[in-house]
Amino acid sequence: MTDSPAFLRQAGRILNAGQSRALLLTGNVYDLFRNGGAYTPLLPFLSASWNLPEYIVVTYELNGGIRFKSDADAALIRDAWLRFETGLDGNQIDIRRMLDAGDADARLATARRTYDEGLRRTANDPTAALEFLRRLCHCGRAEIQGERNLKRRLLTLIEGADLLIPETEISRLSDSDRQRLAIIHDWFSDPGFLNGEDSVVMIAESASLLHHRIARLPQVVEIEVPAPGEVEREAFLGWFKGQGGEVRHFGDEREFARATAGLSIHALMQLLKAGRHERRTISEGEVTAKVESYIRAQLGSDAVGFTKPEHRLDDVVGYSRLKAFLKEELIPRFRMDGTEALPGAAVSGPIGSGKTFVFEAVSAEVGMVVLTLGNLRSKWFGETDIIFERLRRVLNTLSKVLIFVDEADTQFGSVDAGSHETERRLTGKIQAMMSDPALRGRVFWLLATARIHRLSPDLRRPGRVGDLIIPVLDPEGADRLAFVDWMVEPGDSIDEATRERLVEMTADYSAAAFAAVRSELKALAKLRGGNLPPGEIEAVVKDHLPSDIAEARRYQTLQALVNCTRRQLLPDPDVSDAEREGWRNELRAMELGRPGA
Question: What domains can be seen in the chain, in order of their start residue?
Answer without folding.
Answer: 6-225 (3.40.50), 230-299 (1.10.8), 306-471 (3.40.50.300), 475-597 (no CATH)
